[in-house]
Design a protein that fits this description.
- The chain is of the alpha+beta class.
- It is built from three helices and five strands.
- The chain has a domain of 85 residues: Ribosomal protein S16 (S16 Ribosomal Protein, Chain: A, 2-Layer Sandwich), CATH 3.30.1320.
- Helices cover 18% and strands 25% of the residues.
- The chain has a five-stranded mixed sheet with strand order 4-3-2-1-5.
- The protein is elongated, with a radius of gyration of 31 Å.
């Protein structure tokens, strides 16, 4: 499956991104099929360029944009939909597994056994327990 995502370039603490179409299984820094734009958030105002013709062609072919790329395509006026936030994403449902009851160990903790070494009965130099 193909996806549209950001590929990071630049040096430490000065990133810029390319908007690329790539196979989902490939690394974000790996091979890509097509570059459709660039985004440089460090500039004031941030630089955003998207080849809208290429972007629309890929979207018609069924390429799934990431959430960030979706928001950038809305900012570039390639898409008319609203911007997606983390709170609008559908949450995964957790499946609950039946838990087995744990055995009650409180009965053994109440009554000390006769073999338990207490603080007063420490071994002496000969290895015998002091009384």
């Amino acid at each position: 499956m193909l996806v549209m995502r950001l590929s990071r370039f630049g040096r430490k603490k000065v990133p810029f991104y390319r908007i690329v179409v790539a196979d989902r299984r490939k690394s974000a820094k790996g091979r890509f099929i097509d570059q459709i734009g660039r985004y440089h958030p460090g500039l004031n105002p941030p630089d955003l360029f998207v080849d809208s013709k290429k972007a629309k062609e890929w979207l018609k072919q069924g390429v799934q944009p990431s959430q960030t790329v979706w928001n950038l395509l809305v900012q570039a006026k390639v898409l008319k939909e609203k911007i997606i936030t983390n709170s609008q994403k559908p949450k995964k449902q957790k499946t609950q597994t039946p838990s087995t009851p744990k055995p009650d160990t409180s009965a053994s903790a109440e009554a000390p056994s006769s073999e338990t070494v207490t603080a007063n009965s420490a071994p002496n130099q000969n290895g015998n327990l002091a009384e």
